[in-house]
Amino acid sequence: MKISTLVLPGLIAGLALGATPNFAGAADTTLKFGAFGSGKAPFHTRGIVPWTAKVGETSGGKIAVKVFFNTLGGPTELYKNTKVGIADIAWVVASASRGFKFPRSEVLSLPGVLDGYTNAHANRALWRLYEKGLIKEDFTDVVPLAFASMSPTHIITKDKEPSLKQLAGLKIAATSGLSAQVVKQLGGIPVFTPVTNLYQAISRKTVDGILVGFTAIQGFRLDEVTNRHVVVPLNAPLAFVGMNKAKLESLPEAAQKAILNTSGIQLATTLGRAGDGMVSFTRKRLSKNPDQKIIDVPSAERAKWRAKVQPVIDRWIKSTPNGAAILAAFKQELEAAKQGK
Length: 341
What we know:
Elements: E1 29-35, H1 42-58, E2 63-69, H2 78-83, E3 89-93, H3 119-131, E4 142-149, E5 153-157, E6 171-174, H4 177-185, E7 189-192, H5 198-203, E8 209-213, H6 214-217, E9 228-231, E10 238-244, H7 245-250, H8 253-260, H9 264-287, E11 293-296, H10 299-319, H11 323-338
Parallel strand pairs: 1-2, 1-3, 6-7, 6-8, 9-11
Antiparallel strand pairs: 3-10, 4-10, 5-8, 5-9
Helix pairs in contact: 1-9, 3-9, 3-11, 4-10
């Protein structure tokens, strides 16, 4: 049986979809995967396509994943729809999951925490926290199979190159509550804007700039309406591949192992490397365009930005159960991942 390809967020045009293997006979179990986007992002082509193939191979063809393109819910509904069983597995954007919070896991999204680290480091570090039980309480009905950092955000604008002082009073589009806090701490005026509306917001001059990462720029064609990238790592959106807990536990033990043994830190690492590749590709493409300008904020100046957003971290520590210990453990795991551990 041919394993369907799986669509993840269409953040960037990627490699053409590769062929998927065929297995003889019908699968004993077909899992419904809720997805959205074009399916051309490296998250999909380099991460999920090989993973679904491995699940099929490991199970001897007894598990198939049937993908429902943009029909089992969009970014705001997929977590809920996986929780109630409309989807068995789904790609979940944490900040977009309407009505649901992942407070402990939000440690990955804290401003500046990923400065000096890659998406692969971040994904591995968060998975280690999950294994140790530090963030498991965020996940009761949906089991994460892998985490995916969407890369740290930075300020992008049209023509303007705002310094830290010049951000005061600028209207900046923010896609989540945490990013809105970051904008406010930097002196800007946060304007909550779904990621799908960022293009229109800045092209119509509803906002002066956008807080977004390189992984979103090409997929949403934001460089068509912006040309200045003030790069200092701020908050990083969190996504994850999640599975309905009851559905997972209802499967035969061999089927559960086929899914779990091909997921976890290895899938998290693969998704992280795909994200890192997206960042590198986008930066190189923009740097070759004379109309685009990337301004990498020097280390000394970054310290001032970090000081400005520190209150966001302090509030998170106070409001999150075991927040200080989670943050300390995450930093340790980030460094361990960087050292190849």
